[in-house]
């Protein structure tokens, strides 16, 4: 019987992704400061025991996300934060992981306050019957959810359905890129005792205003819902 245990080989794609994530987290957390050089290709190869081909692909991905840039005879340099592609799902995930919760939610709350009331306002003017049915369906699934976990996806679907009802491709794209942050936000607000009792009436008010084609009420209802979300943050953070 052969008692020698073979060393587990990490698939190349998984290895590549894990290195991208590790370096990405180190960049957004400031371990690799802005405007400073990353380790060289040779150093990355040595540190992670990978080929130059894999190391170059890792750098290519980081460059494509705006976190770094590469120059001949200079190497790879960490970009300033205003160059990062913050709507990239990976970059956004790394920012969420490396930012204190209070700071992240303060930033995300501001983004939602700018975006969501206007989405509701526009949707009240542009939603078709089919759009409204999608929003209604998402709300009904929120009502019927037996657990907070079960209510999360319908809640996300509710907000995305409102964005889609604007029929504005850019607004829809932005909304979908923020789904990860929205999911994280809902996970936190769901920690508030009896959160559904607070949340459902707020969402219902948005739906009713859109059904009635009342854009001003839709905007106001969205602002009220976001204020309730802010109170939920404060109660659990």
From TrEMBL:
SMART domains: FCD (SM00895), HTH_GNTR (SM00345)
Pfam families: FCD (PF07729), GntR (PF00392)
GO molecular function annotation: DNA binding; DNA-binding transcription factor activity
Domain HTH gntR-type: 13-81
InterPro entries in the record: GntR_C (IPR011711), TF_FadR/GntR_C (IPR008920), Tscrpt_reg_HTH_GntR (IPR000524), WH-like_DNA-bd_sf (IPR036388), WH_DNA-bd_sf (IPR036390)
CDD domains: WHTH_GntR (cd07377)
Superkingdom: Bacteria
Record keywords, A-Z: DNA-binding, Transcription, Transcription regulation
Name of protein: FCD domain-containing protein
């Amino acid at each position: 019987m052969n008692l020698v245990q073979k060393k587990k080989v990490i698939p190349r794609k998984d290895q590549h992704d894990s290195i991208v994530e590790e370096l990405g987290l180190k960049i957004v957390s400031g371990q690799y400061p802005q405007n400073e050089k990353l380790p060289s290709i040779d150093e990355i190869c040595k540190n992670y025991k990978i080929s130059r081909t894999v190391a170059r692909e890792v750098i290519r991905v980081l460059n494509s996300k705006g976190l770094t840039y590469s120059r001949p005879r200079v190497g790879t340099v960490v970009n300033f934060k205003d160059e990062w592609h913050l709507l990239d799902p990976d970059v956004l995930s790394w920012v969420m992981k490396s930012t204190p919760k209070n700071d992240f939610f303060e930033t995300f709350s501001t983004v939602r306050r700018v975006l969501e009331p206007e989405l509701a306002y526009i949707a009240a003017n542009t939603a078709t019957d089919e759009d409204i049915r999608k929003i209604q369906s998402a709300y009904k699934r929120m009502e019927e959810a037996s657990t907070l976990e079960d209510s999360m996806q319908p809640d996300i679907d509710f907000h995305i359905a409102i964005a889609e009802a604007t029929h504005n491709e850019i607004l829809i794209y932005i909304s979908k890129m923020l789904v990860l942050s929205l999911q994280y936000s809902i996970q936190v607000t769901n920690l508030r005792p009896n959160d559904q009792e607070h949340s459902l009436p707020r969402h219902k008010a948005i739906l009713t205003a859109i059904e009635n084609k009342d854009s001003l009420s839709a905007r106001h209802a969205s602002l009220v819902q976001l204020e309730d979300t802010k109170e939920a943050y404060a109660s659990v953070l």
